[in-house]
């Protein structure tokens, strides 16, 4: 007997039938546990467990969800009861794993609150600061969650998941409207799928071109760092070497290996950020090692030199005005600070563009992940405001065009994320009010 071949139209028809059954009034099952919370968050930004309904009214829930949807940001809020179904020491990690979508996750567990974010969406220090700002004992859930969302949204990168439907409320949907929805889905499915495929191909081509540009710059950075290691001429067994020096040197070597490995496996522009993060970490380790060997005070942990991160950690901040922009404070190395004080131009990192070599901040949005790894998502926009790269980073289209990464979110990642960044749990361990995440940020 011949079977009917699978088609996207038949799949959409099946989806339409699912909507009729799943969204019709009176057939929704009572939600319990992490899996149900995760499924709900795939459909919308706010989930309130039935056992925690007294904490947040339906009206407040809808208003909070609407605020997040209007901002088109990958922010997920869960209001959960303290119970065995939501273990405090792993609930955030468990929920992020089950949802499988990059984003900022905030959880109100009983009367406690904590949050975490994928590093592609929000730096760890920014999450910590926002959590600390709203983690006030005795604050009701509606006030706390709204304050959290209001403070976080300007910093969150990326766009909301495609599965969300702004303003949707299936609780009051009638059968007639669901049938109409099913009809539209089936009739328009073939055309919609063709558009999706075309957009995906275009996005893949743009990402490939952006990654090719980045690969040239990053390979230069890795080579330059390797040369620094060679010039160091440090031997763990040399006279005067101690355990602290050997640990600094080991971190510097690990950073080199991590950078090479991350670049070798990079498939999207946002995969470049871990490479430059590793190089920034390595150069700081070298600076600390140099101070120990010379017997001078250990350097403060600062951002790298803005004009060229390969110059190493900055030593001071100075006022700088980009062409056509406004003055702002930027971190600079000692050499560039001296050049500026003498009235000379700093030594700026140039990259190749269609119009010839240009400073990286005037070379287009492809260099966002490269710069983001050095400076972090929270610091970078302020440094680059008024520049070509800064203007690109401020647009919602940036994440979609260049694959998220430092400024992306809302993409499905499944279990492929850094689980160690989740830390411990509510009220202790590595969490402690939003703290304890790796310095690199994220889940």
Secondary-structure blueprint:
Elements: H1 8-23, H2 33-43, E1 46-48, H3 58-71, E2 75-80, H4 91-99, E3 104-109, E4 112-117, H5 124-134, H6 141-152, H7 175-232, H8 243-264, H9 273-294, E5 316-320, E6 328-332, H10 334-341, E7 350-353, E8 356-359, H11 368-375, H12 380-384, H13 388-393, H14 397-401
Parallel strand pairs: 1-2, 2-3
Antiparallel strand pairs: 3-4, 5-6, 7-8
Helix pairs in contact: 1-7, 2-4, 3-6, 5-6, 7-8, 7-9, 8-9, 9-11
Instruction: Supply the number of helical segments.
Output: 14
Order of helices and strands: HHEHEHEEHHHHHEEHEEHHHH
Taken as a percent bin, the fraction of beta residues is 5-15%
Mean pLDDT across all amino acids: 78
Described by the principal axes of the CA atoms, the overall outline is globular
Distance between the termini: 51 Å
Q: What is the CA-based Rg, rounded?
A: 25 Å
Biggest beta sheet attributes = 4 strands, mixed
**Uncertain runs:** 1-6, 22-31, 166-174, 395-408, 427-443
Number of DSSP E strands: 8
Task: Tell me roughly what share of residues is in helical segments.
Answer: 40-55%
Broad structural category: alpha/beta
| Strand line-up in the sheet with most strands | 1-2-3-4
Notes on the protein architecture:
- By secondary structure, this protein is α/β, with parallel strands linked by helices.
- The protein is 47% helix and 9% strand.
- The protein has 14 helices and 8 strands.
- The chain has helices spanning 8-23, 33-43, 58-71, 91-99, 124-134, 141-152, 175-232, 243-264, 273-294, 334-341, 368-375, 380-384, 388-393, 397-401; strands at residues 46-48, 75-80, 104-109, 112-117, 316-320, 328-332, 350-353, 356-359.
- The protein has a 4-stranded mixed sheet, with helices on both faces. The chain has a two-stranded antiparallel ribbon with strand order 5-6. A two-stranded antiparallel ribbon has the order 7-8.
- Helix 3 (58-71) links the parallel strand 1 (46-48) and strand 2 (75-80).
């Amino acid at each position: 007997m011949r079977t009917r071949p699978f088609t996207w139209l038949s799949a959409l028809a099946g989806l339409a039938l699912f909507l009729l059954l799943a969204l019709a009034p009176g057939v929704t099952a009572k939600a319990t546990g992490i899996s149900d919370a995760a499924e709900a968050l795939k459909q919308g930004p706010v989930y309130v467990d039935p056992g925690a309904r007294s904490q947040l009214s339906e009206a407040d829930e809808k208003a909070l969800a609407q605020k997040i949807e209007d901002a088109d940001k990958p922010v997920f809020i869960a209001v959960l009861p303290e119970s065995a179904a939501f273990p405090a020491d792993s609930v955030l990690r468990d929920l992020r794993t089950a949802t499988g979508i990059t984003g900022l996750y905030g959880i109100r567990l009983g009367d406690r609150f904590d949050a975490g974010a994928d590093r592609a969406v929000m730096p760890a220090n920014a999450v910590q600061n926002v959590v600390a700002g709203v983690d006030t004992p005795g604050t009701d859930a509606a006030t706390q969650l709204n304050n959290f969302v209001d403070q976080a949204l300007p910093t969150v990168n990326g766009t909301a998941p495609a599965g969300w439907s702004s303003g949707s409320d299936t609780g009051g949907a009638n059968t007639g409207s669901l049938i109409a929805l099913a009809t539209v889905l089936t009739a328009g499915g073939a055309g919609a799928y063709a558009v999706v495929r075309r957009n995906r191909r275009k996005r893949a081509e743009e990402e490939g071109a952006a990654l090719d540009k980045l690969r040239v710059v990053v390979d230069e950075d890795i080579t330059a760092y390797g040369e620094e290691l060679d010039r160091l001429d440090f031997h763990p067994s040399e006279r005067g070497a101690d355990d602290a020096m050997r640990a600094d040197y080991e971190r510097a070597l690990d950073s080199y290996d991590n950078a090479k490995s991350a670049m070798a496996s990079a498939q999207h522009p946002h995969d470049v950020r871990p490479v430059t993060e590793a190089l920034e970490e390595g150069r700081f380790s070298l600076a600390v090692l140099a101070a120990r060997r010379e017997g001078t005070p250990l350097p403060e942990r600062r951002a790298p030199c803005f004009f060229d991160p390969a110059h190493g950690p900055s030593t001071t901040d100075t006022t700088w005005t980009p062409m056509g922009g406004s003055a702002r404070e930027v971190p600079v190395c000692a050499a560039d600070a001296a050049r500026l004080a003498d009235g000379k131009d700093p030594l700026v990192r140039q990259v190749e563009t269609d119009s010839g070599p240009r400073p990286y901040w005037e070379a287009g949005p492809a260099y966002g992940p490269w710069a983001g790894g050095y400076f972090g998502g929270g610091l970078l926009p302020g440094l680059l405001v008024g520049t070509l790269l800064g203007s690109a980073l401020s647009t919602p289209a940036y994440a979609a065009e260049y694959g998220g990464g430092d400024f992306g979110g809302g993409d499905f990642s499944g279990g492929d994320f850094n689980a160690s960044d989740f830390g411990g749990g509510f009220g202790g361990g590595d969490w402690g009010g939003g703290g304890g995440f790796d310095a690199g940020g994220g889940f």
